[in-house]
Specification:
single chain; alpha/beta; Rossmann fold; binds NADP nicotinamide-adenine-dinucleotide phosphate
Length: about 240
């Protein structure tokens, strides 16, 4: 990233890809605000980051929490949204309506409402980077919900890129394949075995690292010609 004094807000920045974005941006001289639900995780992440970075609590399933977060933040340049809860991997007949609807709370409505409340604070020339996933275009069997939440984020990205262009704000998304993060703990029985088997099927020969993903987010955030872009970063998974 261009070394600068820009202010970057990373919701979901206490873990995984979001933390990697925060760490790289902070090393490059940005003032980073990492945010998530758990105050201990917020404090731990903020204390590991270099420079002037800070941590704040937000729960993107609670609009009052989102409003309070942005009201206390002042102006900033870029918003990155990587907040996500566990993946709901069930077929349409196994899902209850309640859990199917709830799966949109963090990933879709969380991003939507975060953008809405963030907008008054984003300086012209700034940008927003949301998070999709390869399920949007290459769903695995039994993933109607991940396919739908990621697809919805990609459509939202394109619509907002148009709507926010007159304000000088760019909107993009990263579409990651499997990335080695805490997301997979508890979701697959043996994450290391899962990463090895997924990685060996990819042209890249391995799954993604959080720092690979961070480079994609920061590319979109930095590049003044990138807007309405969904950047696939999947180790070549979409060509095999
Ligand atoms: N890793 C992959 O292979 C992969 C692939 C494709 C797409 N994705 C998507 O990319 C996003 C990030 O993934 P990751 O692997 O970096 O996940 P991760 O390591 O599990 O991090 C998720 C982050 O979201 C925060 N969070 C969860 N619920 C929240 C809420 N209600 N409000 C605010 N923050 C919340 C968590 O912190 P707290 O628990 O403290 O709130 C944490 O900081 C997710 O949406 C995921 O589905 C991941």
């Amino acid at each position: 990233m261009t070394p600068n004094t820009k202010k970057i807000v990373v919701i979901g920045g206490t873990s995984g890809m979001g933390y990697a974005v925060a760490e790289r941006a902070a090393k490059d001289g940005a003032h980073v605000v990492v945010a998530s639900r758990d105050q201990e995780r917020v404090d731990a992440a903020a204390s590991r980051l270099p420079g002037t970075s800070e941590g704040r609590r937000i729960d993107v399933t609670d609009e009052a929490s989102i409003a309070a977060f942005f009201a206390g933040l002042g102006e900033f340049d870029h918003l990155v949204h990587t907040a996500g809860d566990t993946l709901l991997l069930k077929g349409i007949e196994e899902l209850t309506s309640a859990e199917a609807r709830a799966a949109f709370e963090v990933r879709y409505w969380g991003a939507f409402l975060a953008v809405r409340h963030a907008l008054p604070g984003i300086r012209p020339g700034g940008s927003i980077v949301l998070t999709s996933g390869v399920a949007a275009t290459r769903p695995l069997p039994g993933s109607p919900i991940p396919a739908s939440t990621t697809g919805a984020i990609e459509s939202l990205t394109r619509a907002l890129a148009l709507d926010l262009a007159p304000r000088g704000i760019r909107v993009n998304a990263v579409r990651p394949g499997v990335v080695r993060t805490e997301l997979w703990d508890g979701l697959v029985p043996e994450p290391e075995t899962f990463f090895r088997s997924q990685g060996s099927a990819l042209p890249a020969g391995r799954v993604g690292r959080p720092e690979d993903a961070a480079a994609a987010y920061l590319f979109l955030l930095d590049n003044p010609f990138a807007t309405g872009t969904v950047l696939t970063l999947d180790g070549g998974g979409s060509i095999v």
